[in-house]
Amino acid sequence: MTEKMAKISSSLEDQVINSLEEVIDPELGVDIVNLGLIYHVSVVDQKCTLSMTLTTMGCPVGNLLADSIRQAVIAVEGITACDIKLVWEPAWDIGRMSRYAKVALGLHE
């Protein structure tokens, strides 16, 4: 990959992450990026692949989140497809949350 292509990919990945900050977990009321649910974002040939987890394995809003995530990703100019890989390792815990999310949820460090 050329340096210019790497910069474009990085820029698209940053744009995807920014767009994902608009996806709010309906149970917690905080976006999925600040909750630490997004583990990896990669964009290759206009296709975004992202690895993410849920706060719990039986999370009842998983399908709703997946639909919202796909919409947010496809809204980024230059992205035409989104593949979501749901992973459970490493397990999510509150340590993955940003300071913003912790404050929003009333948790103190």
UniProtKB/TrEMBL annotation:
Domain MIP18 family-like: 13-82
GO terms, molecular function: methyltransferase activity
GO biological process: methylation
Gene3D superfamilies per record: Fe-S cluster assembly (FSCA)
InterPro entries, per database record: Fe-S_Maturation_MIP18 (IPR052339), FSCA_dom_sf (IPR034904), MIP18-like (IPR002744)
Pfam family, one: FeS_assembly_P
Keywords: Methyltransferase, Transferase
Protein name, entry field: DNA methyltransferase
